[in-house]
Design goal:
Number of domains: 2
Number of helices: 6
Low-confidence stretches: none
Order of helices and strands: HEEHEEEHEEEEEEHEEEEHEEEH
Structural class: alpha+beta
Bound molecules: zinc ion
Mean pLDDT: 88
Radius of gyration: 24 Å
Strand order of the largest sheet: 7-14-13-12-8
Distance between the termini: 39 Å
Helix content: 10-25%
Shape: flat
Largest sheet: 5 strands, antiparallel
């Protein structure tokens, strides 16, 4: 990694020196912080040769001997496996005398972690690699922290909902902020706008925008369901997560030394009308593919 924690770019028309500098980083032998294996980025980028948990550690519902359901807070929420193989129990007092760890100092068990449940790339970082999947978001943000919009944002003459009223878009700026007709306030950010057609347009498999305070992201709707309070909930995937292919185009020939990179799982891109869209290399598997029990459509 470079100083900013990112992989160095090497675009298609990069200079010899830029390519040499990038190659040095991409070819360097590294040790994976998750599994301890050696890897380099040329060989492993988008290969998903490692595994991760999605976290956090949460609860599993278990029945006690009287059939009463309780929560047991000891398991990864993703796969409901215990985080590691050690267990403190009644025989602790015996183990005290013969093991090498010291309970007061080594507060946590030193047994190996249970291997992850979702495929991902080897990495020198220990954080969870984001697959872009978000589950169970209501159509209307309860606290106005996000909004949905048509793919690419609202256009001139579109009808939007602003402060509870339908308004017409008069002007659109490069950052997707708008001016509205009959509203005496310029450059309203997309997160403040409601999309009146969302209910009909946000169908499973369709693409749209997801706006937050400071960002606007293209998403694909994966699931849609209705909860007990009649809210429409969506599961979706952020489409521009990962590294855009054009940023590392000059590295691709070097990656071919380890086999054709485009067959790697992280290099399979979404298509729309036969055309590849959002060619971003993904560093981990979609959680809904890895953990079918999360699908609640
Ligand atoms: Zn897991
Ligand atoms: Zn690894």
């Amino acid at each position: 990694m470079t100083d900013n924690g990112q992989l160095p770019e090497a675009k298609l028309y990069a200079s010899e020196k830029e390519i040499a500098d990038a190659w040095e980083e991409w070819a360097k032998l590294r040790v994976c912080a998750k599994c301890g294996h050696a890897f380099n980025w040329l060989q492993s980028f988008g290969s998903w040769e490692c595994k991760q948990h999605l976290g956090p550690i949460g609860c599993k519902r278990v029945k006690d001997q009287w059939g009463i359901t309780k929560r047991d807070y000891r398991y990864w929420q993703c796969c409901l496996k215990p985080p590691n193989t050690a267990r403190r129990n009644d025989s602790e007092i015996v183990w005290n005398n013969i093991r090498s760890t010291r309970p007061c100092v080594d507060k946590f068990p030193t047994e190996r972690d249970v291997p992850g449940c979702v495929r991902c790339d080897h990495t020198e970082a220990i954080h969870i690699l984001d697959d872009g999947v978000r589950l169970g978001f209501p159509l209307l943000s309860p606290t106005d922290v996000y909004s949905f919009a048509p793919e690419g944002g609202h256009k001139v003459n579109d009808t939007v909902v602003y402060m509870g009223k339908e308004r017409i878009v008069a002007q659109v700026y490069f950052d997707k902020s708008v001016d509205l007709q009959d509203v005496d306030r310029g450059r309203i950010t997309p997160v403040e706008l409601g999309w009146s057609e969302a209910k009909y347009k946000m169908t499973i498999g369709s693409f749209c925008d997801w706006n937050t305070d400071d960002m606007s992201m293209p998403i694909k709707i994966l699931n849609r369901r209705i909860d007990s309070r009649a809210n429409i909930l969506f599961d979706f995937k952020i489409m521009n997560i990962g590294m855009p292919v054009h940023q590392i185009a000059a590295m691709i020939p070097h990656m071919a030394k380890y086999g054709d990179p485009i067959v790697r799982p992280g290099w399979q891109f979404e298509k729309k009308d036969g055309k590849v869209i959002y060619p971003h290399i993904q560093n981990c598997e979609n959680r809904l593919d890895a953990l079918p029990h999360l699908k609640r459509a």
